[in-house]
Design a protein that fits this description.
CATH superfamily of the largest domain: Zn peptidases
Strand content: 25-35%
Number of strands: 17
Strand order of the largest sheet: 1-2-12-3-13-16-14-15
CATH architecture of the largest domain: 3-Layer(aba) Sandwich
Largest sheet: 8 strands, mixed
Helix content: 25-40%
């Protein structure tokens, strides 16, 4: 990954985008795609669409720009902030973490309190629900805390991007700024191939709250096919349950979903593009749902042929998600190859 692409990825990852508060991250994305898209537009909730004008066939490359997080639910008399979860936040990884409250007056640093091991009951290994946890910003009472923050302010982990060995990185919110990165990069790389189709790159909002942005975009855009890129579980770590193993590994390429929302014609088109460009892919099985924007796209309008394309990811919904940058680069190449070859319709022939 070259320096410009890496800088774009880090800009996305360094910008907090909890669901419902995605504006700053969407601005980063729009600023990037404006240099090569024919048009960029946004809707009232902040979904962003970049357009590469072409022929009658229309395909969309999508990712969601929001991340999980928290909101300030209440302020206690002693100045502590009580939390509520945004999306699928994991209560087992929150305590003892640095966080940032994104207040109107600017970011406020805090920590999620954890009673010292010396003071805890050694026989009690229970984990408090997020609603029972609290953020300490150093305030001495409610009045002081309320001068800094308001109820409803978003809160995210304060994490930086860390380079690991073998081209791997760790960060919070790889889910799913990597999907929006791949959509943007897929469009840029497709533009260099002068595709016959009209190609859209899409960064949706509020996926973590029930695929809400994809519902809006799917209805409004109604393309002939959508490839929704999201992270997918790499189960190549010691802690992965045996009954949930998928065979997906870091460094072995993007993951093409099969079953459920994954339309067989789009699956075939993406696999053919991968073979033509000699891009290694992995396969995954989705028996009932993908858990991604693909689930919303494929039921929009009268049905949009859709595919969930996964980037292998370890430790999803924690502050230390891990992926292989080579997998991400290949994902963008595959999206571009699919878009460059897209033609005709993708419906099932009976």
């Amino acid at each position: 990954m070259d320096q410009r692409r890496r800088a774009f990825l880090e800009d996305l990852l360094d910008t907090a985008t909890p669901s419902g508060f995605e504006t700053a991250g969407q601005r980063v994305w729009v600023d990037y795609v404006e240099s090569f898209a024919d048009e960029v537009r946004t809707d009232d909730y902040g979904n962003a669409v970049a357009v590469l004008e072409g022929g009658d066939t229309e395909v969309a490359l999508a990712g969601h720009g929001d991340e999980i997080g928290f909101l300030v639910r209440d302020v206690t008399e002693d100045g502590m902030l009580k939390l509520t979860a945004v999306g699928g936040s994991d209560r087992t990884v929150t305590k003892g973490q640095h966080v940032q409250v994104h207040a109107e007056g600017g970011p406020v640093a805090g920590v999620v309190g954890q009673t010292a091991i010396h003071l805890r009951d050694p026989e009690d290994e229970s984990v408090d629900d997020i609603g029972e946890q609290y953020v300490d910003v150093g305030a001495t009472d409610a009045e002081e805390a309320e001068e800094l923050v308001e109820r409803g302010d978003p809160v995210t982990f304060r994490q930086t991007v860390a380079d690991l060995e073998n081209g791997r990185v760790a960060a919070r919110g790889l889910d799913n700024r990597v999907g929006t990165w791949a959509a943007a990069e897929g469009l840029r790389r497709a533009a260099r191939q002068d595709p016959d189709a009209t190609v859209y790159a899409v960064s949706t909002v509020q996926e973590e709250l029930g695929l809400q942005g994809a519902k809006m975009v799917g209805f409004d855009l109604a393309p002939d096919a959508v490839v929704a890129t999201d992270v997918t579980h790499a189960t190549d770590t010691p802690g992965a349950p045996a009954d949930k193993g998928s065979g997906v590994e870091l460094g072995e390429g993007p993951v093409v979903g099969r079953g459920a929302a994954n339309h067989p014609a789009v699956v075939a088109a993406v696999r053919e593009a991968a073979e033509a460009e000699e891009i290694d892919v992995q396969l995954s099985a989705a028996g009932s749902r993908t858990g991604t924007d693909a689930d919303a796209f494929y039921t929009s309008r009268g049905g949009i042929p859709s595919l969930n394309l996964g980037v292998p990811n370890r430790y999803m919904h924690t502050p230390v998600e891990v992926l292989d940058l080579a997998d991400l680069d290949r994902t963008a190449d595959l999206l571009a190859a699919f878009a460059a070859r897209a033609e005709g319709e993708f419906g099932v022939e009976l």
